[in-house]
Amino acid sequence: MKAFDREHSVWQRFTPEQRQEVLAYGTNYRQFLDTARTERLANKEILRQARAAGFKPLTDYTALQKGDKVYWDQKGKSVILAVIGEQPPEEGLKIVGSHIDCPRLDLKAMPVVEKDSIVYFKTHYYGGILKYQWVCLPLSLLGVVYTAAGEKIEVSIGDDPEDPVLYITDLLPHLGKDQAVKKLNEAITGEMLMPIIGLHSDTSEVKPAILQFLQDKYGIEEEDFASAELEIVPAQKSREVGLDRSMIMAHGQDDRVCSYANLAAILQAKSAHKTQVALFADKEEIGSMGNTGVQASYFLDFMAELLALRGHTEDIYLRRLLRKSEVLSADVCAALDPNFESAFEKNNAGKFGYGIALCKYTGSRGKAGSSDANGEFLIKVRTIFNENKVPWQISELGKVDQGGGGTIAYIMANWGCEVVDCGVAMLSMHAPLELVAKTDAYCAYLAYKAFFESR
């Protein structure tokens, strides 16, 4: 089987046995998607699987040896898993970095408002979305609230089939003459993304009745929203797409398709020459800021702690580790969409169903904001994939002047690591429901596992 082949899809290249592995992987991946609906829930599920596989907190160790499995839980919203290799950590790590946050709507600090006897939640969108896509969908409310008494309340409304859902209205076409002539990004504004949450009341005002419902069901006062993290996501769970069931539709596949592959790879990879590290980061969609994003100190702190367990507390050892480390930035890229062909340069666009995609650079207009991987590292990654028969392809994010985007790659490149973006080419990226090919999702797992096990 040719690993690099732009003429034949992965399904065409795979044996019947490999095709069955694709389907089994797709089933497990969908279970992850339907469980890991927010970054907090993804953190929880990743740690559950890691603990079941023998991973222990790094703080449990006073020394490390080959095969030890350790984890770091960053405030319940990011995770690091590592398997100690034969070489000491200061000789460099094999890192696959993915993110578990995704575009969504967040509730504002004082979200409950009443307009003409209808009660709404006020929201602020998180990450890059097309706002018009979020109307007229069944929506779930997920997250946590901390009450004045310090109690943590976990909220889940809309995910159970018996639950009510939330809903954002749009204007009927009969009255939409003025709306129809607006640009797409102006027809629905951010402040219009207000889900309806209630209508019934025994008095002239509805808001007090809805607040009373929240107090009765969850013990939440209006002031408690100020110490809450509540997210609105599509209530629709994952579904198979296509008469041949070849694709998966779900919310949050950017970047949970790569995160699940990252998790599956480190859980199943053989302990190897170098220490293997799987990063599951928060806040990538808003620039990797905050104390759970990759621009924070926790990932460097984790590596410093590994070195400290070997008696190396001087900063120079951390710098050497970073310079010798190799990273796959595991994030999605845009697959060629025949319906919007003019946005792509076909010869360099990732193809749907053709394997994991290597993206040498991201950025925009002149590669601005990109790490731009060097040829020396690319030939090494190519060789790993070819030797392990991992179907792969080349991709970039649209035409040169069309737009662009970024990942965590430039951050780790700034530390001195060798980095290249390596992820799944998907359709309808950042839409409420995104689309990936099952074969591509499986190829991500094969790619990350082969990378972890390489020298």
Can you describe this structure in just a few lines?
With 455 residues, the protein is of the alpha/beta class. The protein contains twelve helices and 22 strands.
Q: Would you mind describing this structure in some detail?
A:
The protein is an alpha/beta fold. The protein has two domains: 10-102 and 251-453, 3-Layer(aba) Sandwich (Aminopeptidase), CATH 3.40.630; 104-234, Aminopeptidase i, Domain 2. Helix content is 29%, strand content 24%. The chain is built from twelve helices and 22 strands. It has a nine-stranded mixed β-sheet, with helices on both faces. The protein has a six-stranded antiparallel β-sheet with strand order 8-7-10-5-6-9. Strands 11-12-22 form a three-stranded antiparallel β-sheet. A hairpin with a 5-residue loop joins strand 11 (239-241) and strand 12 (247-250). The longest helix is centred in the N-terminal third of the chain and has 20 residues, at 16-35. The two termini are 23 Å apart. GO terms for molecular function: aminopeptidase activity; metallopeptidase activity. This is M18 family aminopeptidase. Belongs to the peptidase M18 family. Keywords: Aminopeptidase, Hydrolase, Metal-binding, Metalloprotease, Protease, Zinc. Its cofactor is Zn(2+).
